[in-house]
Every structure is written in structure tokens, then in C-alpha cells.
Design a protein that fits this description.
It is a single chain. The chain folds into 2 domains: 21-288, Nitrilase/N-carbamoyl-D-aminoacid amidohydrolase (4-Layer Sandwich), CATH 3.60.110; 318-489, no CATH class. The protein has helices at residues 2-12, 20-23, 43-61, 105-117, 197-206, 227-238, 492-508, and strands at 26-33, 67-69, 120-130, 137-146, 152-157, 176-179, 185-190, 211-216, 221-222, 241-246, 257-261, 266-270, 281-288, 314-315, 323-326, 333-341, 344-355, 360-373, 376-388, 407-420, 425-433, 445-451, 455-462, 469-478. It is globular, with a radius of gyration of 23 Å. α3 packs parallel to α4. 17% of the residues lie in helices and 36% in strands. A 6-stranded mixed beta sheet has the order 5-4-3-2-1-13. Strands 6-7-8-10-11-12 form a 6-stranded mixed beta sheet, with helices on one face. Strands 15-18-19-24-21 form a 5-stranded antiparallel beta sheet.
């Protein structure tokens, strides 16, 4: 009966929602933090193990979800490719006359699971495709979306590739969206895309998408780009709901999933901070149809923890180029400090007291270019406070064994930044607490923006004392300001770590 009701709504009520929760202004979303099987079997055996894990998590949803999202690069590999249709009128669960014979059985099994549990389903696969112009074989990093009946309703092929030598880009970037029977239009992309204007900002700014999905296999980097920290800041500044599903390989520096409701903060999130073994876990949340509306259950029960950080973290490679000032670790200290670099000036007002020695901290301002891989760059403007393991700037973003349990209590912390206006940019709060490697929730800070003639004045302030800060910063990504050859290179540590991960995948294949 319920399935018939959904069908009726789909056919006759384009703006009518199908579930009682959606009628109340919410939908139920699930995102998976997923540890892929990467060693110990043939490529087919690894695929089957990953598929079994997907189906198990979907069963845990128990048919209560409106949409479930799985992360990037956690299902099949280059030896177990599948074709992915752009869309299908009927369910992919059963083979239809004229179907592409290269559609793999595992993709049909997932379509059947979407139908069995009555949920929209987004998964990321390695796709085999044929170039329509040259006829050449292509491999894409592809998101595919099934509706509640298992029909393919959206496909997206990753545009901003990151150390993926066997993967091809499309001729032009794609903007992928799909509509649901609960009144929401989603846009979606893959991992590294989040750091660039196309397609991520295009979806939000050009198409007006308010509900966004990202599939990730993300290497976290201190002080500003850990996974959940970036996800929450991105959702906050774009004022969108964000469903982020992440791979879980902490020994390779990969973890971070969550569901975020714009300026309302995280509804559910997970970082594998103190384990070397990844998890397979489904995070569930009731998500407001309007990202501006405060969720009913927005209070996350996350106790402070003093467990060590075992997640392998990268380090921002350009710290030597920052204009910085070290905070003296003296009891009852305070400072009013103004730091500038090029066209960015920031004012800091801080009061703090060290406890048991505490971390070292620096204030920093940076205007510069950031190189990620090959010819891909970001132009960054940022100002903030960040933790260091000793008094040198080179130690900022590093965590030493002896200082993991030591704290500094910040009783007052305010940053006022004057950021140059540009047509295409994203300026977001970048905060991080050592207790879980999560961003601060909205109840813990204030954020305001004032537009002037040629500047944006941003004020960011801590609402209450905090003793576990690792980062408290204003982070600006200026998408059009970069020049080839002018950016700093990623550190050797990053290249080695990502290469190691790729080799692990190849061994598994």
C-alpha cells in the first residue's frame, strides 16, 4: 500500500512529498563511513566483500531512509568495471531488452536493494565507457543514483581528478542533479571537486541547489583541511544541506563522513581519530527540507575525549610563507594583534591560560597559491589561530606524543578579517577541536559578514571558553586567482602517502 502511495505521488503530485516525515519538513538520510576490502583476495572477491558490506548497511537502515549515500572508491576497481547508463526508464534490477551488456551484476543487485528498501541510493563506481567521438575505451570515477524502484535517475563523472592516472575526464564538466518524491532536488559530485568552483559552486550558485551530496576518499590535512572540518565549513558558508560519505582507512589518513544542515551545523558525523582500523557504519539523521530551518534534534551527544590521535594527518605545505606571531605560554595572557600580508589584514583579540604546559599556538595570515596535483591550484586567503607542537612554525599542524593530552584554555577569541571582494570565492569558518577532530558547532561560535565597497569584513568569535582548540580560522578560497608555476608544491609527505594508498588499491586489484 505504501509503495502504491509513493507511485501515486510521483505520478500526480510533483510538489507533494511522500512520507509523513517529509510532510513535517524533514527527510531521513543515511551516509556510510565505509572501510573497503583492498587486500586478501582477487579483484572479484574484494568486490563481493564490499558489496556484501553495502547490503548489510542498507539492511540496518531497515527501510526507514529516504536516501542512502556510499563513498568514493569503496566498491569496485579497474579490473571489475561496469557500464553506467545515464538514466533508465525502468528498474535496473531486472535486465531489459536493449540494456548495455557491460552493466555488471553488482550494479543490478544494488538497484534491487534500492527497490527492496524503498530508498534513493547513490553509489560511486569505476565505470567503463566508450568515447562517443573516438571510440576509445574510457574509465571514469562515477556517481550513480537509483530511485526507490531501482531506476537510474542521475550519473556524474568526476571532473577534478586527484592522483588517478588510470581515470579519464569528460570533454566538459558535468553538473549532475536529480529530483525526489519528497520535494528535494539534489546536486552531487566527488571528493576533490569540493575544492574548486566547477562543479561544486556551480551547483549552488548557478543552479540554486540547496541539498548537496559528495562521495569522498579524503586525506585530512592540518591545520585547515581535515575532512569533517571542511565539510561543515563548506555547508555553513554555502547555506546548504550536505550529505558526505567517506572512505575509512585511518592508517592511510582517510576518514570523515557526516550530515550537515547549513549554518545549523552537523546533524551526524564521524572521524576515526583514535583507531587504525576503519569502520563500516551508517550515520542517520532527520534533515530539514529547508537548510535555514533549525533541526529538531541538533544536539550531538559527543563527550570530550582525551584519546590519542592515531589518524595519519598531512600538514599544510605552505606554512613558512605565512605571516605569523607566536602566543607566549604565560598564565593569564591577552593580546590585541593586527597582522597583514599583501591585501589581507586581520585583527585578533585573545585571552588564554596554559594548562600543564599546553600546545604552542600561532596567529597567522596568508595570501598565496596552493598546488594540489599537476596543474591544479587554489588561491587562498586565510587568517586564524592554529596549534603547533613546538615554537617553530614548521611544527604547526603536527601532533607530538607528549603534547596530545595538554591544553590551553581560551577564554576570549575574536578574529576580524578584511577580505578583498571577488566574483567567485568561498569564505568559510575553519575550526577544529582535538576531542574528536570535529569542527565547532554553531552554539560555540559566532560568524558575521559585512560587505563594503571593495572589502568583506568578517567577524568570527568564540562564544564560550574552549580548552581543546586546534584551529580557529577564516578560510577563503578564491577560485579565479592562480597562475601556473606560481604555486607552492605539496610536501613530499603528501605525495608519498597518496602513492602508498594507490599502491594498496593496485595490490588489492
Amino acid at each position: 500500500m505504501f509503495k502504491l502511495l509513493r507511485l501515486f505521488v510521483w505520478l500526480f503530485g510533483g510538489l507533494v512529498v511522500s512520507s509523513s516525515e517529509a510532510l513535517d519538513g524533514f527527510y531521513t538520510a543515511g551516509v556510510a563511513e565505509f572501510r573497503p576490502a583492498i587486500m586478501g583476495g582477487t579483484s572479484q572477491q574484494l568486490l563481493e566483500a564490499n558489496l556484501a558490506g553495502y547490503l548489510e548497511l542498507m539492511a540496518l537502515g531497515n527501510g526507514t531512509t529516504d536516501i542512502i549515500v556510499f563513498p568514493e572508491a569503496t566498491l569496485n576497481g579497474v579490473l571489475t568495471l561496469t557500464a553506467v547508463p545515464e538514466f533508465t526508464k525502468l528498474s535496473l534490477c531486472e535486465e531489459q531488452p536493449g540494456d548495455d551488456t557491460e552493466i555488471a551484476p553488482f550494479l543490478r543487485q544494488l538497484a534491487c536493494a534500492a527497490r527492496e528498501y524503498g530508498t534513493y541510493l547513490l553509489v560511486n563506481v569505476k565505470e567503463r565507457a566508450t568515447d562517443k567521438f573516438s571510440g576509445a575505451n574510457m574509465i571514469h570515477n562515477t556517481n550513480v543514483v537509483f530511485d526507490r524502484q531501482g531506476a537510474v535517475i542521475s550519473r556524474y563523472r568526476k571532473w577534478n581528478l586527484y592522483l588517478e592516472p588510470s581515470t579519464n575526464r569528460t570533454e566538459e564538466p558535468e553538473l549532475a542533479t536529480f529530483q525526489t518524491d519528497f520535494g528535494v532536488t539534489f546536486g552531487h559530485f566527488v571528493c576533490f571537486d569540493m575544492l574548486f568552483y566547477t562543479p561544486a559552486q556551480d551547483l549552488v550558485e548557478r543552479l540554486g541547489i540547496r541539498h548537496v551530496i559528495v562521495t569522498k576518499m579524503f586525506n585530512s590535512e592540518l591545520p585547515f583541511l581535515t575532512a569533517s572540518q571542511l565539510q561543515q565549513g563548506w555547508a555553513w558558508s554555502n547555506r546548504v544541506n550536505l550529505l558526505a560519505a567517506g572512505g575509512s582507512l585511518p592508517q592511510a589518513g582517510i576518514s570523515g563522513s557526516g550530515i550537515y544542515a547549513g549554518e545549523q551545523g552537523a546533524l551526524a558525523r564521524l572521524m576515526m581519530k583514535d583507531e587504525t582500523e576503519g569502520q563500516r557504519k551508517l550515520l542517520l539523521a532527520r534533515v530539514p527540507l529547508d537548510p535555514e530551518e533549525e533541526p529538531m534534534d541538533n544536539e550531538l551527544l559527543e563527550a570530550d575525549e582525551t584519546t590519542p590521535i592515531r589518524l595519519k594527518l598531512l600538514q599544510q605545505p605552505e606554512l613558512k610563507k605565512f605571516a605569523t606571531w607566536e602566543l607566549p605560554m604565560v598564565e593569564g595572557s591577552s593580546v590585541d594583534k593586527r597582522l597583514c600580508q599583501e591585501d589581507l589584514c586581520c585583527e585578533f583579540r585573545i585571552k588564554w591560560s596554559p594548562v600543564d604546559g599546553g600546545h604552542n599556538y600561532r596567529l597567522g595570515v596568508w595570501v598565496g597559491q596552493r598546488r594540489y596535483e599537476e596543474e591544479q591550484y587554489s588561491a587562498i586567503r586565510l587568517c586564524g589561530l592554529f596549534a603547533c607542537s613546538n615554537s617553530s612554525v614548521e611544527s604547526c599542524g603536527l601532533i607530538s606524543e607528549e603534547q596530545r593530552e595538554q591544553r590551553v584554555v581560551f577564554t576570549e577569541l575574536q578574529i576580524l578579517g578584511e577580505f578583498v571582494r571577488r566574483p567567485r570565492r568561498l569564505i568559510m569558518p575553519s575550526t577544529l577541536s582535538s576531542s574528536h577532530l570535529y569542527a565547532l558547532q554553531p552554539s560555540q561560535l559566532t560568524w558575521s559578514m559585512e560587505e563594503l565597497d571593495n572589502l568583506t569584513r568578517i567577524k568570527m568569535e568564540l562564544r564560550q571558553p574552549h580548552s581543546q582548540l586546534m584551529t580557529f580560522a577564516i578560510y577563503g578560497n578564491y577560485f579565479d586567482e592562480y597562475a601556473n608555476g606560481g604555486a607552492g608544491r605539496l610536501g613530499t609527505q603528501l605525495v608519498l602517502l597518496i602513492t602508498t594508498l594507490m599502491m594498496m588499491h593496485l595490490i588489492g586489484e
